[in-house]
Amino acid sequence: MSSSTILLPGQPLPSSLTAPPLPACGSGCYESNGRILASIVGIPRRDGSVVSVIGREESGNTPDVGSVVSRLTPQQAHLTLTTSNDRPLPETSEEFQGVIRISDIRLTERDKIKMGECFRLGDLVKAKVLSLGDARSYYLSTAANELGVMYAVSEAGNPLLPVSYQEMEDELTGTREKRKVAKPEGI
Amino acid sequence: MATAFDRRRIPAPEISIPPIYEPLLDGEAEAGPSKRVDRANDEARPIFLKTGLISQANGSGYIESGGVKIACSVYGPRPKAPPYTPQGTLNLEVKFAPFASDPRGAPLRDTEPIHLSQLLTQSLIPAIQLDQFPKSSIDIYLLILESDTPSNVLSAGLTVSSAAIADAGIAMNGLGTGSVVLTDQNGEILVDPEESEEIALQSQAQAQGQGQGQGQGNGAGKLLVGALPALGKVTNLYMEGEVEVDQAIQMIEKAIAASRDTHTVLAQSLLEGALERGIGGEA
Amino acid sequence: MAATMAAQSTAGPSAPAPAPAPANSAPAASAEVFKKLHPSQYLSRFLNKGYRPDGRKLKAWRDVSINVGSVSTAHGSSLVRMGDTTMVCGIKAEIAEPTAQAPNEGYVVPNIDLPALCSPNFKPGPPGDEAQTYSNWLNDLLVSSSTLPPSSLVIASGKAVWVIYIDVVCINYDGNAFDAAVLAVMAALKNTRLPKAKYDEETARTICSRTEIYPLQLGSIPLSCSFGIFDSTHLLPDPSSYESPLLPTTISIALDEDNNACLIRQEGLGGTQGKTGERVLGEAWTIAEGRIKELREILEESSI
User: Fold this and answer.
1) What CA–CA distance (Å, rounded) separates A150 from A171?
2) CATH number assigned to the domain comprising residue A115
3) Which CATH superfamily groups domain B47-276?
4) pTM of the complete model
5) The domain containing residue A161 runs over which residues?
6) Which of C94, C95, C135 is nearest residue B9 as measured by Cβ atoms?
7) Could you report the per-residue pLDDT of C218-235, keeping only the tens digit for each?
8) Has the ipTM of the complex gone over 0.90?
9) Taking CB atoms and an 8 Å cutoff, what residues of chain B touch C80?
10) How many domains does chain A have?
């Protein structure tokens, strides 16, 4: 692809993509005085009634995040965010923090949930961002089949493999531990 | 001169002075301040600009413009400490390498960078879509490796910051560029003045301050314009000196014309950088 | 778990080797994510295949380039690239009165700065721990090897001496800052020219010539080589910023022209499996001798 199709911030999207009815702005662009302009360096694209500019990194509105459990209380799990939409977050001296409240762990049987049976410290958790949350943390949710613990280590220190939606098994000793397990892809 | 002893650096003698040179002989040319060569009065200074050289940063730029060399890196969006802010916060820091100026700039004693940081921040805020980055911060660091005049540092600094922000993929309304224009004592408008031209302006201002020639001539002054040339917008005006209103408007127009030239160079280097980043290569 | 991994890494040092397959327990994670979440396993899989994550061979050093004299506001300067690590060194000379205790000695003031610009892990503000450590090492190195003898910096005994400010600033921090900084300092010192200075007894002022300049009188030129030890198994030369936090042991060896040691530092437990700390240090020394010879050639070429 030649460089002529790459747009720069402030440059209008080509008229072929913005033909009436005026499309809505997706990511990487904005509307100004009835024109749609790029806001990042990237390639313009139209999907139905939405135009967007695709740059170095795609970002959705409610990203999936990978996160590591850093602190647990009976009411909520505190996590450190590490990845967003399967891409590592930029390296920084301080990391983004997230919180999963006990009511956002599962879809069902919410009143019976015990924090200790869902997450342990150091677990790698896949979650969805619910909202910007409070001053410190984003609010996250694992209330979906494909969300939850993706990688964990047993009390004996060996990797755990998922065996059901709420249990994982030690590869070597066969001991089972409870978790809110993310459904592995492709199953 | 009771400066606190700095334990974090290797100690230096309390007082040291830059070399003093013997007086010039008659007819000897001084190899001092740079002069305007090979460009017209209303022509922008040629620049060299490259993005993406600092691999550790999310986005970066390096600019050479006359006697100025600046490296700039952008980190972000980064998590911001409470309190919650609905908009992103822009942190910008200008730092001079100790060898970047004449005389040497000792660490801690210099206040010039603070002023430059403020002016650059004001010029850049309208260019960045900070509402896209709630409770995050965008950190921009400029390191001056070589400098001649503060106004050249400012205009090059603004251009290289824009390049680095765009390289980082951070949403912007448009690309900001900086340019400086000066009206000399003859009423001539000079775009991107050289050091010699700024010194001439300063000495004239001093002469006026002493009551000589006041009220005569056209007045003289210096103007920094931060602009978003693609949108036809101005983001910052900063003027020193004294000129007629008509003259000031002319200065703005010349500055914007010059910033379009800079914008062309900026756009070219961003397109090259985008190809190196693999934008457009995939999909 | 490592046994179930099918890592394939066949690319030569010129092209970055493909990342090993991600952990089977996290199939959705791309190589980049795996790299971030399990750095130690990521590194270990590369090393077991004989490569480093940036594509070089296990014991390879990164490419080095030196440019000198590009900073016009300095009396001497250099830009050194070691892989992606980039250092700029500028030397400024000023004039001061010597101390009463040492009337025939000038001052040498070396400092290394690792500003927030060069890495996401550094904060703005005064020099951090790492920068302070390196500044002290650099100072020790220059003093112990008399690279720039203070006695060579006298303009008039007891009245005026040169102060040589050596400032190294990192622009891009991809590990092994100390080796790059030392190389930058040596290149800049060789590039430095001072004006001929004369002290005037009557006015008590020092006046410098506009036409006559001379180079510094340099003693020995030490150069440094640094290593890290991973998992008590691999001795890795020239660690990158990704590898550095995973290397509990680091070794730095600086040698002069005759391969005499000017500085040896080891932090952390020495030795690897089956080898004593002494033997590993000796191994590092031998590697360093070869590498420093190469660096000297690059340094010589840069100053022509």
Assistant:
1) 15
2) 2.40.50.140
3) GHMP Kinase, N-terminal domain (3.30.230.70)
4) 0.87
5) 64-178
6) C135
7) 999 999 999 999 988 999
8) no
9) none
10) 2
